Amino acid sequence: MLLQTIQRSWWVLALYGVISILFGIGALIWPLTTALALAWAFGVMALAEGVLSLLALFDKNTPISKGWLALYALASIAFGIVAVIFPGAVAGVLLLFLAAWLVVGGIYRIMFAVRVRKQIQGEWWIGLSGLLSIVLGVLFFAYPAAGLVSVTVWIGAFVLIYGVFQVMAALKLRKMGEPAPAK
Q1: 3-state secondary structure of 9
Q2: Exposed e or buried b for every residue in 170-179, given b needs 16+ CB within 10 A?
């Protein structure tokens, strides 16, 4: 029963796959524009969530504290407005958070490698991964536009591969749903 339902809707998987492939190609061809579009889309989603959360304030059966819900609604709306009006700034700030995380994580990995050097062999790999993380974080700080482009290219490549897998799965499901040829 479940398999038949899934087989009948193979085209939904195919559609997701095609959309992903198109998005991936777009991200690879126009990475900066794609990064701005993603930031803008996050803003639209945050605005929608904020408005819906504001409306939930008027529901008597809301299971969350009205104060927290109001704070969340206002924060979502504020972020949404900023992201829609200034998508480049939002994308840049998110990249700077990523850069800071990479530097802090790299320092942690190096410190960890030094601490465990007597307990495990090959700890230098951990230290090397920390060094590479720091270098990438510093590069993102130094060249945020290039960092934004490179992150978007990686996202685009991933989404492109994901889309191909979705289409392949959809075609497999479609084939499974076809009647067997008569002998």
Answers
A1: coil
A2: beebeeeeee
CB 87 within 8 A of CB 37: yes
Alpha-carbon torsion (64, 65, 66, 71), positive or negative: negative
Evaluate if pTM is beyond 0.85: no
HSE value, Cβ hemisphere, 13 Å, CA-based, for 159: 20
Contact 102, 141 (CB under 8 A): no
Q: Are 152 and 36 in contact (CB under 8 A)?
A: no
Q: Provide Rg for the chain, Cα atoms.
A: 23
Contact 151, 35 (CB under 8 A): yes
What is the C-alpha separation between 18 and 164, in angstroms, rounded? 8
- Alpha carbon distance 53, 57 (integer Å): 7
Tell me, letter by letter, the H, E, C secondary structure of 107-163: HHHHHHHHHCCCCCCCHHHHHHHHHHHHHHHHHHHHCHHHHHHHHHHHHHHHHHHHH
Q: Are 140 and 98 in contact (CB under 8 A)?
A: yes
Please write the tens of the pLDDT for every residue from 144-178: 989 999 999 999 999 999 999 999 999 988 888 77
Report the run of H or E that residue 33 belongs to, with start and end: helix 31-56
Q: How far is CA 29 from CA 26, 149, 150, in A?
A: 5, 10, 12
